[in-house]
Task: inverse folding
Protein backbone atom coordinates (compact mmCIF):
# COMPACT_ATOMS: atom_id res chain seq x y z
CA UNK A 1 0.00 0.00 0.00
CA UNK A 2 1.24 3.52 -0.80
CA UNK A 3 2.94 5.04 2.24
CA UNK A 4 2.33 8.73 2.87
CA UNK A 5 4.03 11.14 5.24
CA UNK A 6 2.07 14.01 6.73
CA UNK A 7 4.68 16.21 8.46
CA UNK A 8 2.16 18.70 9.86
CA UNK A 9 -1.37 18.42 11.10
CA UNK A 10 -4.00 19.12 8.47
CA UNK A 11 -7.72 18.71 9.14
CA UNK A 12 -8.70 15.49 10.88
CA UNK A 13 -10.99 14.56 8.00
CA UNK A 14 -8.12 14.79 5.48
CA UNK A 15 -6.00 12.53 7.70
CA UNK A 16 -8.91 10.10 8.21
CA UNK A 17 -9.64 9.84 4.48
CA UNK A 18 -5.99 9.28 3.59
CA UNK A 19 -5.56 6.75 6.42
CA UNK A 20 -8.58 4.78 5.14
CA UNK A 21 -6.92 4.37 1.71
CA UNK A 22 -3.17 4.43 2.39
CA UNK A 23 -0.62 3.90 5.13
CA UNK A 24 -0.43 7.36 6.68
CA UNK A 25 2.39 8.45 8.99
CA UNK A 26 1.60 11.52 11.13
CA UNK A 27 5.02 12.99 11.82
CA UNK A 28 3.80 15.71 14.17
CA UNK A 29 2.41 13.09 16.56
CA UNK A 30 5.69 11.14 16.86
CA UNK A 31 7.56 11.53 20.15
CA UNK A 32 10.84 10.97 18.36
CA UNK A 33 10.44 12.37 14.85
CA UNK A 34 13.97 11.55 13.69
CA UNK A 35 13.60 7.87 14.62
CA UNK A 36 10.26 7.66 12.83
CA UNK A 37 11.71 9.35 9.75
CA UNK A 38 14.74 7.06 9.68
CA UNK A 39 12.40 4.06 9.85
CA UNK A 40 9.86 5.08 7.20
CA UNK A 41 11.87 7.31 4.81
CA UNK A 42 12.86 4.44 2.45
CA UNK A 43 9.16 3.58 1.89
CA UNK A 44 7.53 7.01 1.59
CA UNK A 45 6.06 7.72 -1.87
CA UNK A 46 4.05 10.84 -1.09
CA UNK A 47 4.22 13.79 1.29
CA UNK A 48 1.04 15.67 2.11
CA UNK A 49 1.68 19.10 3.58
CA UNK A 50 0.49 22.71 3.79
CA UNK A 51 2.12 26.08 3.28
CA UNK A 52 0.69 27.60 6.37
CA UNK A 53 -0.24 25.27 9.14
CA UNK A 54 -3.88 24.87 9.99
CA UNK A 55 -3.64 23.75 13.59
CA UNK A 56 -0.16 23.08 14.79
CA UNK A 57 1.77 26.31 14.63
CA UNK A 58 4.86 27.02 12.59
CA UNK A 59 5.46 26.28 8.91
CA UNK A 60 7.24 23.09 7.89
CA UNK A 61 9.84 23.45 5.15
CA UNK A 62 9.87 20.69 2.56
CA UNK A 63 13.24 21.82 1.25
CA UNK A 64 15.90 20.04 -0.82
CA UNK A 65 17.55 18.48 2.24
CA UNK A 66 14.23 17.09 3.47
CA UNK A 67 13.17 15.84 0.02
CA UNK A 68 16.45 13.97 -0.40
CA UNK A 69 15.71 11.82 2.62
CA UNK A 70 13.02 9.93 0.66
CA UNK A 71 14.47 7.79 -2.17
CA UNK A 72 11.03 6.57 -3.37
CA UNK A 73 9.29 9.96 -3.13
CA UNK A 74 7.14 10.69 -6.19
CA UNK A 75 4.54 13.22 -5.04
CA UNK A 76 4.36 16.25 -2.73
CA UNK A 77 0.73 17.32 -2.41
CA UNK A 78 0.18 20.77 -0.92
CA UNK A 79 -2.99 21.90 0.83
CA UNK A 80 -3.21 25.47 -0.46
CA UNK A 81 -2.39 27.36 -3.62
CA UNK A 82 0.83 28.85 -2.23
CA UNK A 83 3.66 26.34 -2.05
CA UNK A 84 6.54 28.52 -0.92
CA UNK A 85 7.42 26.03 1.82
CA UNK A 86 8.18 23.39 -0.84
CA UNK A 87 11.30 23.47 -3.04
CA UNK A 88 9.31 22.61 -6.16
CA UNK A 89 12.16 23.45 -8.54
CA UNK A 90 14.39 20.94 -6.77
CA UNK A 91 11.61 18.34 -6.63
CA UNK A 92 11.10 18.73 -10.39
CA UNK A 93 14.78 17.99 -11.08
CA UNK A 94 14.27 14.67 -9.25
CA UNK A 95 11.13 13.79 -11.19
CA UNK A 96 9.02 14.37 -8.06
CA UNK A 97 5.67 15.99 -8.82
CA UNK A 98 4.26 18.79 -6.65
CA UNK A 99 0.55 19.58 -6.64
CA UNK A 100 -1.36 22.46 -5.04
CA UNK A 101 -5.03 23.49 -4.74
CA UNK A 102 -5.61 26.42 -7.12
CA UNK A 103 -8.96 27.77 -8.42
CA UNK A 104 -11.15 26.27 -5.69
CA UNK A 105 -10.06 29.01 -3.26
CA UNK A 106 -9.84 31.96 -5.66
CA UNK A 107 -13.23 33.57 -4.95
CA UNK A 108 -13.05 33.02 -1.17
CA UNK A 109 -9.61 34.57 -0.93
CA UNK A 110 -10.69 37.50 -3.10
CA UNK A 111 -13.71 38.00 -0.81
CA UNK A 112 -11.37 38.08 2.19
CA UNK A 113 -9.11 40.57 0.44
CA UNK A 114 -12.03 42.80 -0.32
CA UNK A 115 -13.36 42.49 3.22
CA UNK A 116 -9.96 43.69 4.41
CA UNK A 117 -10.02 46.57 1.94
CA UNK A 118 -13.39 47.77 3.21
CA UNK A 119 -12.50 47.24 6.86
CA UNK A 120 -9.19 49.03 6.50
CA UNK A 121 -10.28 52.03 4.44
CA UNK A 122 -13.66 52.54 6.15
CA UNK A 123 -12.34 51.52 9.60
CA UNK A 124 -15.31 49.26 10.43
CA UNK A 125 -13.51 47.21 13.12
CA UNK A 126 -12.35 50.40 14.90
CA UNK A 127 -15.85 51.87 14.57
CA UNK A 128 -17.30 48.73 16.12
CA UNK A 129 -14.82 48.88 19.00
CA UNK A 130 -15.93 52.51 19.47
CA UNK A 131 -19.58 51.48 19.73
CA UNK A 132 -18.86 48.57 22.10
CA UNK A 133 -16.84 50.86 24.34
CA UNK A 134 -19.87 53.14 24.70
CA UNK A 135 -18.09 56.02 22.98
CA UNK A 136 -20.92 56.66 20.49
CA UNK A 137 -22.88 58.22 23.36
CA UNK A 138 -20.24 60.92 23.40
CA UNK A 139 -20.47 61.66 19.66
CA UNK A 140 -20.29 60.00 16.23
CA UNK A 141 -17.30 58.00 15.00
CA UNK A 142 -14.86 60.06 12.93
CA UNK A 143 -15.25 60.29 9.15
CA UNK A 144 -13.08 57.95 7.09
CA UNK A 145 -11.58 57.83 3.62
CA UNK A 146 -13.84 56.58 0.81
CA UNK A 147 -13.23 53.79 -1.67
CA UNK A 148 -14.78 55.10 -4.89
CA UNK A 149 -12.67 56.95 -7.41
CA UNK A 150 -9.42 55.66 -5.98
CA UNK A 151 -6.92 53.38 -7.65
CA UNK A 152 -6.32 49.87 -6.41
CA UNK A 153 -2.89 48.57 -7.32
CA UNK A 154 -2.57 44.80 -7.40
CA UNK A 155 0.84 43.25 -6.95
CA UNK A 156 0.54 39.81 -8.54
CA UNK A 157 -2.29 39.72 -11.08
CA UNK A 158 -2.81 35.95 -11.07
CA UNK A 159 -6.10 34.15 -10.53
CA UNK A 160 -6.68 35.67 -7.09
CA UNK A 161 -5.39 39.09 -8.12
CA UNK A 162 -7.83 39.15 -11.05
CA UNK A 163 -10.75 38.15 -8.81
CA UNK A 164 -9.84 41.01 -6.46
CA UNK A 165 -9.63 43.40 -9.43
CA UNK A 166 -13.15 42.37 -10.50
CA UNK A 167 -14.48 43.22 -7.04
CA UNK A 168 -12.57 46.52 -7.11
CA UNK A 169 -14.19 47.50 -10.40
CA UNK A 170 -17.64 46.76 -8.96
CA UNK A 171 -16.84 49.17 -6.12
CA UNK A 172 -15.86 51.97 -8.51
CA UNK A 173 -12.10 51.63 -8.17
CA UNK A 174 -9.61 52.03 -10.99
CA UNK A 175 -7.26 49.05 -11.26
CA UNK A 176 -3.51 48.95 -11.96
CA UNK A 177 -1.06 46.10 -11.53
CA UNK A 178 2.52 44.95 -11.24
CA UNK A 179 3.87 41.47 -11.88
CA UNK A 180 6.78 39.63 -13.41
CA UNK A 181 5.66 40.79 -16.84
CA UNK A 182 2.89 42.71 -18.58
CA UNK A 183 -0.05 40.51 -19.59
CA UNK A 184 -1.06 40.84 -23.23
CA UNK A 185 -4.77 40.20 -22.59
CA UNK A 186 -5.11 42.63 -19.65
CA UNK A 187 -6.11 46.27 -20.16
CA UNK A 188 -5.26 47.59 -16.69
CA UNK A 189 -2.23 49.92 -16.58
CA UNK A 190 0.98 47.98 -15.87
CA UNK A 191 3.85 49.13 -13.66
CA UNK A 192 7.17 47.32 -13.80
CA UNK A 193 8.11 47.74 -10.13
CA UNK A 194 6.23 47.61 -6.80
CA UNK A 195 7.47 51.14 -6.09
CA UNK A 196 6.06 52.53 -9.35
CA UNK A 197 2.74 50.77 -8.68
CA UNK A 198 2.65 52.09 -5.09
CA UNK A 199 3.24 55.65 -6.34
CA UNK A 200 0.34 55.29 -8.79
CA UNK A 201 -2.27 53.83 -6.42
CA UNK A 202 -4.15 54.51 -3.19
CA UNK A 203 -4.74 50.93 -2.08
CA UNK A 204 -1.90 48.47 -2.70
CA UNK A 205 -3.05 44.84 -2.55
CA UNK A 206 -0.38 42.15 -2.27
CA UNK A 207 -1.46 38.94 -4.05
CA UNK A 208 1.86 37.56 -5.33
CA UNK A 209 3.48 34.25 -4.35
CA UNK A 210 5.83 34.03 -1.38
CA UNK A 211 9.35 32.63 -1.47
CA UNK A 212 12.88 33.97 -1.81
CA UNK A 213 12.16 35.95 -4.99
CA UNK A 214 9.52 38.13 -3.37
CA UNK A 215 10.94 38.37 0.17
CA UNK A 216 10.51 41.92 1.57
CA UNK A 217 9.60 43.42 -1.80
CA UNK A 218 7.24 45.73 0.08
CA UNK A 219 9.96 47.72 1.82
CA UNK A 220 10.32 51.23 3.27
CA UNK A 221 10.73 52.76 -0.21
CA UNK A 222 7.53 51.16 -1.52
CA UNK A 223 5.62 52.32 1.57
CA UNK A 224 6.96 55.85 1.11
CA UNK A 225 5.77 55.77 -2.49
CA UNK A 226 2.31 54.61 -1.34
CA UNK A 227 2.14 57.76 0.75
CA UNK A 228 0.21 59.19 3.73
CA UNK A 229 -3.22 58.60 2.12
CA UNK A 230 -2.32 55.08 0.99
CA UNK A 231 -3.36 51.69 2.36
CA UNK A 232 -1.55 48.35 2.17
CA UNK A 233 -3.51 45.09 2.05
CA UNK A 234 -1.73 41.71 2.25
CA UNK A 235 -3.52 38.42 1.67
CA UNK A 236 -0.53 36.60 0.12
CA UNK A 237 2.38 35.79 2.44
CA UNK A 238 3.81 37.83 5.31
CA UNK A 239 7.29 37.34 3.89
CA UNK A 240 6.60 39.77 1.04
CA UNK A 241 6.42 42.66 3.48
CA UNK A 242 9.29 44.09 5.52
CA UNK A 243 7.30 44.05 8.79
CA UNK A 244 9.54 46.40 10.81
CA UNK A 245 9.36 48.91 7.92
CA UNK A 246 5.57 48.56 7.82
CA UNK A 247 5.28 49.07 11.59
CA UNK A 248 7.39 52.23 11.32
CA UNK A 249 5.29 53.47 8.36
CA UNK A 250 2.04 52.90 10.26
CA UNK A 251 3.44 54.62 13.36
CA UNK A 252 4.77 57.76 11.72
CA UNK A 253 1.99 58.24 9.14
CA UNK A 254 4.09 57.32 6.11
CA UNK A 255 0.99 55.37 5.05
CA UNK A 256 -2.60 55.72 6.29
CA UNK A 257 -3.29 52.11 7.27
CA UNK A 258 -2.93 48.42 6.54
CA UNK A 259 -5.05 45.27 6.44
CA UNK A 260 -3.16 42.03 6.99
CA UNK A 261 -4.31 38.42 6.76
CA UNK A 262 -0.76 37.04 6.74
CA UNK A 263 2.42 37.52 8.75
CA UNK A 264 6.08 36.61 8.37
CA UNK A 265 6.13 34.15 11.30
CA UNK A 266 2.62 32.82 11.70
CA UNK A 267 0.97 32.32 14.06
CA UNK A 268 3.17 34.87 15.83
CA UNK A 269 2.09 38.46 15.21
CA UNK A 270 4.47 41.28 16.20
CA UNK A 271 3.20 43.02 19.36
CA UNK A 272 3.65 46.39 17.66
CA UNK A 273 0.76 45.61 15.28
CA UNK A 274 -1.56 44.86 18.19
CA UNK A 275 -1.07 48.29 19.69
CA UNK A 276 -1.68 50.18 16.44
CA UNK A 277 -5.17 51.43 15.62
CA UNK A 278 -4.62 51.92 11.88
CA UNK A 279 -4.13 48.25 11.07
CA UNK A 280 -6.77 45.53 10.68
CA UNK A 281 -5.46 42.07 11.58
CA UNK A 282 -6.85 38.67 10.56
CA UNK A 283 -5.47 35.21 11.52
CA UNK A 284 -4.81 33.96 7.94
CA UNK A 285 -8.43 33.21 7.08
CA UNK A 286 -8.23 33.95 3.34
CA UNK A 287 -9.60 30.56 2.28
CA UNK A 288 -11.08 29.59 5.63
CA UNK A 289 -14.73 28.87 4.89
CA UNK A 290 -16.23 25.41 5.41
CA UNK A 291 -17.05 25.00 1.72
CA UNK A 292 -13.73 26.21 0.38
CA UNK A 293 -11.65 24.19 2.80
CA UNK A 294 -13.70 21.12 1.82
CA UNK A 295 -13.04 21.82 -1.87
CA UNK A 296 -9.31 22.21 -1.12
CA UNK A 297 -9.29 18.94 0.83
CA UNK A 298 -11.13 17.15 -2.00
CA UNK A 299 -8.63 18.40 -4.58
CA UNK A 300 -5.65 17.49 -2.41
CA UNK A 301 -6.98 13.96 -1.95
CA UNK A 302 -7.90 13.64 -5.63
CA UNK A 303 -4.27 14.40 -6.51
CA UNK A 304 -3.03 11.71 -4.10
CA UNK A 305 -5.55 9.22 -5.50
CA UNK A 306 -4.52 10.06 -9.06
CA UNK A 307 -0.91 9.35 -8.19
CA UNK A 308 -1.72 6.10 -6.38
CA UNK A 309 -3.86 4.78 -9.24
CA UNK A 310 -1.43 5.84 -11.96
CA UNK A 311 -3.82 8.50 -13.24
CA UNK A 312 -3.06 12.04 -14.37
CA UNK A 313 -2.47 14.56 -11.58
CA UNK A 314 -5.17 17.23 -11.52
CA UNK A 315 -3.16 20.27 -10.50
CA UNK A 316 0.63 19.94 -10.83
CA UNK A 317 2.50 23.20 -10.17
CA UNK A 318 4.27 25.08 -12.98
CA UNK A 319 7.80 23.91 -12.09
CA UNK A 320 6.75 20.27 -12.57
CA UNK A 321 4.83 20.92 -15.79
CA UNK A 322 8.02 22.29 -17.33
CA UNK A 323 10.13 19.41 -16.08
CA UNK A 324 7.68 16.73 -17.22
CA UNK A 325 8.96 14.57 -20.08
CA UNK A 326 6.93 14.97 -23.31
CA UNK A 327 3.80 12.79 -23.42
CA UNK A 328 4.20 9.55 -25.43
C1 LIG B 1 -4.42 28.30 3.54
C2 LIG B 1 -3.17 29.62 1.77
O1 LIG B 1 -4.51 28.99 4.72
O2 LIG B 1 -3.76 28.51 -0.19
C3 LIG B 1 -2.90 29.11 0.42
O3 LIG B 1 -1.78 29.32 -0.09
O4 LIG B 1 -2.40 30.34 2.32
C4 LIG B 1 -4.46 29.30 2.44
O5 LIG B 1 -5.45 28.98 1.59
C5 LIG B 1 -3.31 27.38 3.72
O6 LIG B 1 -2.73 26.93 2.56
C6 LIG B 1 -3.76 26.24 4.60
O7 LIG B 1 -3.19 25.08 4.34
Result:
Amino acid sequence: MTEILMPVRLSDSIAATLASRYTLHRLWEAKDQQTLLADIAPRIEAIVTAGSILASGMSFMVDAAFIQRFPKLKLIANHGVGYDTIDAAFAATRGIMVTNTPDVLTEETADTAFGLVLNTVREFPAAERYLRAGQWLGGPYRLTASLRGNTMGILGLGRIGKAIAKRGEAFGLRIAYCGRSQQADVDYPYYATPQALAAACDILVVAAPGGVQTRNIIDAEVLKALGPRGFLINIARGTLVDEPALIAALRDGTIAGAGLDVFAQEPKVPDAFLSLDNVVLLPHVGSASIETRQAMADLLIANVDAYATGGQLLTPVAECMLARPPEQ
